[in-house]
Amino acid sequence: MNRRYTLLTLVTLIMLVSACAQPPATTKEESPKQITDMSGLYGIWQPIPPAKVWREYRDDGTFRIAGTRDTLEETPFLTGEYWFEGNVLYFKDVSGEPEWECGGELVAQYEVQVLESGEIKFVKVKDECSERAAMLSNAQYKRVGE
User: Fold this and answer.
1) d(CA 73, CA 70)
2) What is each CA distance from 53 to 63, 70, 74, 113, 141, in whole angstroms?
3) What is the DSSP pairing of strand 108-114 with strand 120-126?
4) Which regions of the chain does DSSP assign to beta strands (E)?
5) Which of 25, 33, 43, 78 could serve as a FRET partner for 54 with CA atoms 20 to 30 Å apart?
6) How far apart are CA 80 and CA 67, in angstroms?
7) Structural domains of the chain in order of their starting residue, each with its CATH number
């Protein structure tokens, strides 16, 4: 009888302490940092892991894509225009090799997120060009030059 009383008292105390305990603090998940203007995107970007899709964003609102860093200037396989509206990056192809060019009428929309490592990631908002979307969606790049 004494053991039952002690056990019942102990269980009751544990339940009371548990009921009075504070609920765990909830942390508000922070939104990822984003690039929202052209100055944040200027430069040469290498894909991670390395691949044959190097990107250069220029301060005049144009971009170039090439297979290597050395060919960005002279023989890019795609050139185009880019701009920001709010936090959304817009792409418009101007000229390029047929297998890379989506056409100027297919304007893409992406958010550019900055990862903790400093690399960037493109997150598709809207892109009707399936080839470009497959290449860009969630791809990561690191800045390797100005």
Assistant:
1) 7
2) 12, 12, 15, 18, 10
3) antiparallel
4) 33-35, 43-48, 54-57, 62-66, 78-85, 88-96, 108-114, 120-126, 140-145
5) 33
6) 16
7) 33-145 (2.40.128.490)
CA atoms within 13 A on the CB side of 10: 6
What integer is the mean pLDDT of 8-13? 47
Cα 19 to the center of its chain, rounded Å: 42
Question: Could you tell me the pTM of the whole model?
Answer: 0.74
Tokens found for residue 1: 């009888």
DSSP state of 129: -
Q: Are 77 and 100 in contact (CB under 8 A)?
A: yes
Extract the tokens encoding 105.
């009428």
* Spatial distance between the Cα atoms of 142 and 125, rounded to a whole number of angstroms: 21
